[in-house]
Specification:
The complex is a heterodimer of chains A (130) and B (265). Helices cover 62% and strands 0% of the residues of chain A. By secondary structure, chain A is mainly alpha-helical. In chain B, strands 1, 4, 8, 9 and 10 form a 5-stranded mixed sheet that branches. Chain B has a 4-stranded mixed sheet with strand order 6-5-7-11. In chain B, strands 2-3 form a two-stranded antiparallel ribbon. In chain B, strand 9 and strand 10 form a beta hairpin.
Chain lengths: 130, 265
């Protein structure tokens, strides 16, 4: 498996960006697992097996939601867009376009790597190489 | 635009990138506390206090039959180091100069890193208690001869173990002490740095601003650094020749387990 979540050389990335990338990878894995359980549940006929898999899929819902909340906390712009899209009745695409426009046309909520604009994004250095 | 007011400064995008990169490069090696204590956040500039989970009883209540208590919190401090840069140097950066004079920024970065280290390890009077002053383990000294450092560091680890504090352990060394360790070899020629690392099973950290040394447990849950706004560069003002900027952060620090560290004077 190695260090596939990194698109750039890890040693060149600040610790906060490495953490962000790890949680992005974790979010992807949880979404995949949810999809796999959805397929298995669709074809399974044994009620006991179904109950076990539904419980397992619930765990993945929880993991996905926790990963997403972590990432949204570290990325104010992402959070602002998500707030305009998630849990809203109506046209999803329309909400998405509006949320994107509101976030970036108003000057932007944040900069890169999940930190507010102007932040150096240093964060924790525990375990960081010199 | 947020409170840092960066877009009001007469600085180009490439100029800001150069300043941010320079600050990051200068700060990261000097921020010793962040290598050894738990870090949470950043929670944002509008985050004002850390929850301590405690309350103090109030002596009176608005009416009979009711009692009251007030929550105790640890307010965050705002630390700021101001500096001025020459606008002509910033124009040279835009032309591609790779040797711009950013010494005032470098100095401010060092100052705010020292302030953070001192606050965490020795406290900030009236604002927060530091690791060394909170520790009940007093009396061990590092001494001035690096050959003798091994004994007090091993004794500190032993004290932590006796207190039920598990490792690995880290060692924060003040500037002079760090230099002595890096240069030092014991009688047989074995590098002191390697020997201390074996005793600690954790990092040896250059900690400018720390007096002497501090051995801390890295197991987690003992020391909490809470960041409001993480280190950022903001804009104050400018004239025809200079721009006034500042490095700033807001944070609190709280010792949850005083016995999880041993200061070495």
């Amino acid at each position: 498996m190695g260090f596939d979540q990194y698109h750039e050389p890890p040693e060149e990335l600040p610790p906060a960006t490495r953490t962000f990338a790890r949680l992005c990878a974790s979010l992807t894995e949880e979404a995949e697992a949810i999809g796999w359980y959805e397929q298995r549940i669709a074809v399974e006929t044994d009620p006991e097996a179904l109950a076990v898999m539904r419980d397992a899929q619930g765990e993945e819902f929880k993991h996905f939601s926790m990963d997403l909340e972590f990432l949204l906390r570290r990325s104010p712009a992402w959070r602002e867009i998500a707030e305009g899209v998630l849990f809203q009745a109506g046209d999803i695409v329309e909400h998405g376009e509006e949320a994107e426009s509101d976030t970036f046309d108003s000057g932007g909520a944040d900069g890169e790597a999940g930190y507010p604009a102007g932040s150096l994004g240093i964060g924790s250095l525990k375990g960081a190489l010199r | 635009m947020n409170h840092l007011l960066r877009s009001l400064a007469p600085i180009s995008d490439s100029g800001w990138k150069e300043l941010d990169d320079e600050a990051r490069e200068r700060l990261a090696p000097a921020l010793a506390a962040r290598r050894l204590v738990d870090f949470s956040g950043p929670h944002g500039w509008d985050y004002s206090a850390t929850n301590l989970g405690r309350a103090a009883a109030l002596k009176s209540a608005p009416c009979d039959g009711v009692t009251g208590s007030q929550r105790r919190v640890l307010p965050l401090v705002e630390a700021r180091a101001s500096f001025q840069l020459s606008l002509s140097e910033l124009r040279d950066i835009d032309r591609g100069a790779d040797d711009a004079d950013l010494a005032p920024l470098d100095k401010a970065a060092h100052q705010i890193a020292v302030a953070e280290n001192k606050a965490v390890f020795h406290g900030w009077k009236g604002a927060m208690e530091g690791i060394a002053e909170a520790s009940p383990h007093k009396g061990l000294t590092l001494g001035s001869k690096p050959d003798a450092y091994r004994r007090p560091v091993a004794a500190a680890v032993e004290r932590l173990l006796q207190s039920g504090i598990s490792g690995p352990y880290g060692l924060a060394l003040g500037g002079e002490e760090y230099q002595r360790v890096v240069e030092g070899a014991e009688h047989g020629g074995y590098p002191l740095f390697e020997h201390l690392h074996k005793i600690l099973d954790g990092p040896i950290v250059w900690a400018p601003g720390v007096g002497g040394a501090v051995v801390v447990s890295l197991r987690g849950g003992d020391f909490a650094f809470e960041s409001g706004q993480d280190l950022s560069i903001g804009y104050e003002t400018h004239d025809a020749e200079t721009v006034s900027l500042y490095l700033e952060e807001s944070f609190s620090f709280h010792v949850a387990t005083p016995e999880a560290a041993v200061p070495l004077a």
